């Protein structure tokens, strides 16, 4: 059940999942924080945007005020310009956010990874996501949920060619993905955001890893959160 005095914060709120996190959190809580590198304007009056230096997070004092942290930060290899810059955003910024927030007292964190993540992969994307998962679970949290979607559905501001091709491919094969392959099904960004919120609010487990079926089930339970204390 939602405790309305809790203060949630989102990193990556201009992205696809992050924007839905902001929208859904803003109807549950009287105040929501959005962390970003550049100013973002929100129509919702209860969303406050704070500019932070992602290269100097260690002493970010505003983390002391928040209770829940949602990390939806990510880029593409093309936009980053190099493997090193991609890892900087998708690994270093994300893990440093989690560590610094925890140091300031945050005990409940949700982070977006990906199905197929593997820290030993020869491929950049799954390796980077796997490294993040490997290291974030070492942080002493009361609860951590790691969401591992397949292709994320929704309209982005930026064009991701590889992802768009993936959407077409999975649109054709989603209906035949069963059993152990079901976790590769595509899922909407809104469903992911609702699942992240539901689990971070309700889960009693120290660690919860969410694949497609768990994401859909948790998303469908989101409405129950409107029984607010």
Structure write-up:
With 229 residues, the chain is an alpha/beta fold. It has one domain: NAD(P)-binding Rossmann-like Domain (Rossmann fold). The chain is built from seven helices and nine strands; from the N terminus they run βαβββααβαββαβαβα. The protein has helices spanning 16-26, 77-80, 83-103, 124-136, 161-173, 189-202, 212-220; strands at residues 8-11, 32-36, 47-51, 68-71, 108-112, 143-147, 152-153, 187-188, 207-210. A seven-stranded parallel β-sheet has the order 3-2-1-4-5-6-9, sandwiched between helices. A two-stranded parallel sheet has the order 7-8. α3 (83-103) runs parallel beside α4 (124-136) and α6 (189-202) crosses α7. The chain is globular, with a radius of gyration of 17 Å. It starts with 7 loop residues before the first strand and ends in a 9-residue tail after the last helix. The relative contact order is 0.15. The model has no long low-confidence stretch (mean pLDDT 90).
Summarize the structure.
By secondary structure, this protein is of the alpha/beta class. About 35% of the residues lie in helices and about 15% in strands.
In what order do the strands lie side by side in the largest sheet?
A: 3-2-1-4-5-6-9
Number of helical runs?
7
Radius of gyration from CA coordinates: 17 Å
Averaged pLDDT, please? Answer: 90
Helix share bin: 25-40%
Structural class, please? alpha/beta
Key words describing this protein structure:
229 residues, alpha/beta, 7 helices, 16% strand
């Amino acid at each position: 059940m939602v405790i309305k005095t809790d203060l949630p914060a989102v990193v990556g709120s201009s992205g696809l999942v992050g924007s839905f996190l902001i929208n859904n959190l803003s109807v549950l809580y009287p105040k929501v924080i959005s962390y970003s590198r550049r100013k973002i304007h929100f129509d919702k009056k209860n969303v406050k945007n704070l500019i932070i230096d992602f290269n100097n997070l260690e002493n970010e004092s505003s983390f002391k005020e928040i209770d829940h942290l949602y990390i939806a930060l990510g880029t593409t290899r093309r936009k980053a310009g190099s493997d090193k810059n991609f890892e900087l955003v998708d690994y270093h910024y994300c893990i440093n956010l989690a560590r610094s927030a925890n140091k300031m007292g945050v005990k409940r964190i949700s982070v977006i990874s990906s199905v197929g993540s593997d820290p030993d992969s020869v491929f950049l994307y799954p390796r980077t996501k796997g490294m993040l998962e490997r290291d974030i679970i070492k942080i002493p949290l009361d609860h951590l949920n790691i969401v591992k979607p397949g292709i994320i559905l929704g309209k982005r501001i930026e064009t991701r060619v590889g992802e768009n091709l993936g959407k077409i491919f999975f649109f054709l094969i989603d209906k035949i993905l069963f059993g152990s392959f079901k976790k590769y099904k595509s899922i909407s960004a809104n469903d992911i955001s609702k699942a992240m919120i539901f689990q971070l609010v309700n889960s009693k487990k120290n660690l919860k890893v969410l694949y497609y079926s768990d994401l859909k089930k948790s998303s469908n339970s989101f409405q129950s959160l409107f029984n607010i204390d």
